[in-house]
Amino acid sequence: MFKKIGSLSALFFLLFVAFSFAQSEEEIIKNFFKKQKEYSDTSKIKNLYMELSVSTMGFEVPSKIWKKGKNYRVESSFMGQNSVVVIADKEGWSIQNGMTTEILTDQLDMYRAQIANQTQVGNLNISMEDYEKEKDLIKVVGMEKIDGVNCYHIQINPSKDSTQQETPGHFLFDPKNHTLKKMSFKTAQNGHEQQEELLFKDYEFIKGVPFPKNIEIYMDSQKMPKLNSKKFL
């Protein structure tokens, strides 16, 4: 009896594994991009309050972000210096060390996008149009276990038409929910090439959008500032 149950369990496991890998390479990439596009759409989140804290050089750099519709407010502090940025519908201003500066109207969307990106660390806004244009540069290169999860590893090579000296980007994600677990790439600093890695941990979903609570950053395998976050509607 137990042998039969064991045999059936093994059979179901093998079928599950076979089904999991039945997807073609193109399907794996497309499904990942589609889900990332969905995750990057925060339009359904009308109101959001987020607390961020970056640990660096023995200091805690806290910041707070409020979002209401298309309006934002950001407060941050570093070594006793406070700053505030407010982006309203048709006006905006920043306060640095008690001095208020008006933000030009034609710069509001740029500020709005920059702040929105701070709330979206861990999600990639990739269009399927971009994929169709450069799909020959994107490939699945294997799987890697991260925090006990067998993740798909996608490599995106630089465009042949790029005028910049770029290197391949590597993206590892959970096959079950397509959340990023790791991202790595090389950058040039003062003529020296560095390997950068970001590890995304402890996702919290708000209205279907994933937010990593912890992000670990490494430069040439050396641990760098760590980002912790809390989100509240």
How would you describe this structure to a colleague?
The chain has 233 residues and is an alpha+beta fold. The protein folds into two domains: 24-42 and 126-232, no CATH class; 47-119, no CATH class. The protein has four helices and 13 strands. It has a 13-stranded antiparallel β-sheet with strand order 6-5-4-3-2-1-13-12-11-10-9-8-7, with helices on one face. Mean pLDDT is 82; it is low at 1-21.
Summarize the helices and strands and which ones pair or pack.
Elements (H helix, E strand, L loop, with lengths): L1 H19 L4 H15 L7 E10 L2 E10 L2 E8 L2 E7 L4 E5 L2 E4 L5 H12 L8 H7 L3 E9 L2 E8 L12 E5 L6 E10 L2 E15 L2 E11 L2 E11 L1
Antiparallel strand pairs: 1-2, 1-13, 2-3, 3-4, 4-5, 5-6, 7-8, 8-9, 9-10, 10-11, 11-12, 12-13
Strand content: over 45%
Helical content class: 10-25%
Average pLDDT over all residues? 82
Number of helices: 4
Terminal-residue CA separation: 52 Å
Stretches with pLDDT under 50, minimum 5 residues: 1-21
Helices and strands, in order, run as HHEEEEEEHHEEEEEEE
Q: What strand line-up does the widest sheet have?
A: 6-5-4-3-2-1-13-12-11-10-9-8-7
Q: Which radius of gyration do the C-alpha atoms yield?
A: 21 Å
Shape: globular
Overall SS class? alpha+beta
Number of strands: 13
**Whole-number count of domains:** 2
